[in-house]
Amino acid sequence: MKNAYKLDEIIYENQARNGYIQFKQIDLFADSETDKFKDSNIHNEVRLVEISEEWARKNIGNDFKNTFIITAPDDSMYPTFSNGDLLFVNIAIKCHRGDGVYVIATPKNLLVKRIQATISGDLKIISDNKNYAQETITRTKLKSIHIYGKISAVFAFKTM
User: Fold this and answer.
1) Is this model's pTM higher than 0.90 or not?
2) How many Å apart are CA 36 and CA 105, to the nearest integer?
3) Residue 58 to residues 6, 53, 62, 142: CA-CA distances in angstroms?
4) How confident is the model over 125-135, as pLDDT tens digits?
């Protein structure tokens, strides 16, 4: 098997089936390490998820190389997405590039939150779930957070 590797006793080929694209899924919230998006740190934690190429191009665009999948860690962004939904993160976006949902690290936490810019240059950190408080990072404290990527799409799971 050329270009294959072993993970969790399953052999993954390094090539997607025809009509599908493979994305790396990582468990970003398994521990406190926040630098897992670098391939050297995630090789033991990678799972490949095949997604229909048609769905991916329609919902994510064409930047597949810089897109990882993580699992929504909690209900703080409900109803936009729920705990356990698959989030497609574009890790090429390392700064606030328009309002949207981002993976951010603060000195204490790794979060998935909506970021909204204010006229004064501050950033509002917003949970869509109204049970969570909104925070504001002032321009003078912007260096206290690090943006790891912007959520480009969500694959939601609904129970029946």
Assistant:
1) no
2) 12
3) 31, 8, 9, 33
4) 999 999 999 99
